Amino acid sequence: MSHTSTQPASADLIDLDTTFLPVGEMRQISRVTGLTGAEIEGEVDLGPDHWVWEQHFPDDPIFPGTLMTEAAGQLIALWAWAQGQRGKPRLVRVNADFHSPVGKWVPSLVLKGEVRRKRHLNFGSVEIRSEETLVATVEAVLVVLA
User: Fold this and answer.
1) Which sign does the torsion angle of CA 45, 47, 52, 56 carry?
2) Which of 14, 75, 84, 125 has minimal CB crowding within 10 Å?
């Protein structure tokens, strides 16, 4: 599955292809849908054809928590990008709580983050939802290396 947006480019608040996000299957964020001050919102497209279902517990497919954590880190990195930080983003600390499994029936994940910057560190708190269900919360610290 391609990780490019199915919406017109004008719907994206950040052109993901110009940022320092990973490419191919490692890019988790499909689009940024909100960016105001310390808040950022994004989406991860899933659906029944997502590449992960055939590889992660094929007889009982579930979206990996590691990829949700990666998506939260990418969302924080995109907030840093929007603030003018350029370089190599690195997660230096992560704490994640998983509340509900995500299976093939889930069309997308919505991530809502709040980020604050203190010197060279970006402290993010991200809620991940599937429709109205809270599936995970991630607290992370990200640094952008020059």
Assistant:
1) positive
2) 84
Q: What is the pLDDT of residues 60-95, one digit of tens each?
A: 999 999 999 999 999 999 999 999 999 999 999 999
pTM for this predicted structure: 0.90
Please, what are the domains in the chain? Answer: 9-145 (3.10.129.10)
Residue with tokens 């029944």: 48
CA-closest candidate to residue 104, choices 141, 58, 137, 72: 58
Query: Strand 88-98 relative to strand 133-145: parallel, antiparallel, unpaired?
Result: antiparallel
List Cα–Cα distances, 21 to 25, 73, 86, 133, 145, in angstroms: 11, 10, 11, 27, 14
Instruction: Compute the distance between CA of residue 89 and CA of residue 98 in angstroms, rounded to an integer.
Output: 24
Q: How many CB atoms lie within 10 A of CB 48?
A: 12
